[in-house]
Amino acid sequence: MALRSYAIIDSPAPLVAALRDESWQVIAPVERNGSLVLAPIRSANDLPRGRVDQASPGNVRIEEGRPERWFDYTLPASGWKRWLYPPRRQLWQATRVRDAFDLETPLPDPENVAFMGLRPCDLAAIERLDAVLGPEGAADTEYMRRRRHMLSVVVQCARAVETCFCAGMGTGPRAEHGFDLALTELETGLLVEAGSQRGVGILERLPSREAREKDIEEARAISQKTARMQRRSLPPSAAQNIAQAPDHPEWDRLAARCLACGNCTLVCPTCFCTDVEDTTDLSGKHAERWQVWDSCFATAFSFLHEGPVRTSVRSRYRHWLTHKLATWYDQFGTSGCVGCGRCIAWCPVGIDLTAAAEAIAQPASPKPASKGG
């Protein structure tokens, strides 16, 4: 049986303080330049309290909300992936010593990092990355080392923006497992739910009052209401439809709009593709190898021998969407999409992957017959 313990706290301030007292680096959403980004915080005062985000295809904005509300915003611009799987990290460095090279593999000690304000869809995204980069996947030991030093403080969603569709993906708006602590913002305080023994230990050290059954029921009602707010969803047979329709004319319509900028892969919390860069100094005595994030929208991503395999925007968009929604199932047994909607919100031309999947699910219109003999 899953471990469960509940309590009510008045604000997240004592929780942030308790985590910092135990030497956790607390990473949370903060507002910068009109966007929500992830950054280390020193106290709960750094949180964007009283702010709400609004998102629609190709548009994200931050607005004033109720000043007493701590967590009425939803998602930061990018996910938490960069703290577990950095955009750039050194794999090794080599220095010439006489007639040989001294090879060094840097293995920095990971910090204890507490993700504060993690949303259920992003928690699901981390679980997707575990399948790819964990012991049963590509075995990225650096990723697993960081993962073991992670503590998750989830915030159960009390509102949804226009681009959210986690309910249809089964990844939100409520997390039922996989977290250390989960917060639901009620009118009378924050309901804290401990989902691990480590979470129970932290909860026991907070000034709190007993949670009533009424509080727990109210929290679940909030999650149900948030799920009903969502209007987007993927068609039930999206994976099969996309995999079996490589020549559907919708790909041409999507390619005509797509800028191949890679924004969708940058903000996606599950995209994991990387490239390797080798550098040397001018003397030839020192060399380094770096792993860097890459995007399948880049022309050079599919470069083999004398040129790229996917030269057109059409082929690159089709590859991304087919892998994300279809062939990911073949590789990892689940979808590569968690319904966070970031790719819709941050696309400069407002391409909606749920609308694209719906269009591809429809039979292609027959081409008009040519006139004449």
Low-confidence region ranges? none
| Number of DSSP helical runs | 13
Helix-strand makeup class: alpha+beta
Secondary structure tally: strands:
15
Strand content: 15-25%
Distance between the termini: 73 Å
Helix share of residues? 25-40%
State Rg: 23 Å
Mean pLDDT: 91
Shape: globular
State the order of secondary-structure elements, H for helix, E for strand.
Answer: EHEEEEHEEEHHEHEEHHHHHEEEEHHH
Number of domains: 2
The largest β sheet comes out as: 7 strands, mixed
How are the strands of the largest sheet arranged? 1-11-10-9-8-2-3
Keywords for this entry:
seven-stranded mixed β-sheet, alpha+beta, 373 residues, 31% helix, four-stranded antiparallel β-sheet
What does this structure look like?
With 373 residues, this protein is of the alpha+beta class. It has 2 domains: 5-229, no CATH class; 238-361, no CATH class. It has 13 helices and 15 strands. The chain has a 7-stranded mixed beta sheet with strand order 1-11-10-9-8-2-3, with helices on both faces. A 4-stranded antiparallel beta sheet has the order 7-6-13-12, with no helix packed on it. The radius of gyration is 23 Å and the shape is globular. The model has no long low-confidence stretch (mean pLDDT 91).
SSE topology sketch:
Layout: E1 5-9, H1 13-21, E2 25-32, E3 35-40, E4 51-56, E5 59-64, H2 81-84, E6 88-97, E7 100-104, E8 113-118, H3 120-133, H4 141-148, E9 150-155, H5 166-169, E10 181-186, E11 189-194, H6 197-204, H7 213-229, H8 238-243, H9 250-257, H10 263-267, E12 274-280, E13 286-293, E14 303-304, E15 307-308, H11 313-332, H12 342-345, H13 353-361
Parallel strand pairs: 2-8, 8-9, 9-10
Antiparallel strand pairs: 1-11, 2-3, 4-5, 6-7, 6-13, 10-11, 12-13, 14-15
Helix pairs in contact: 9-11
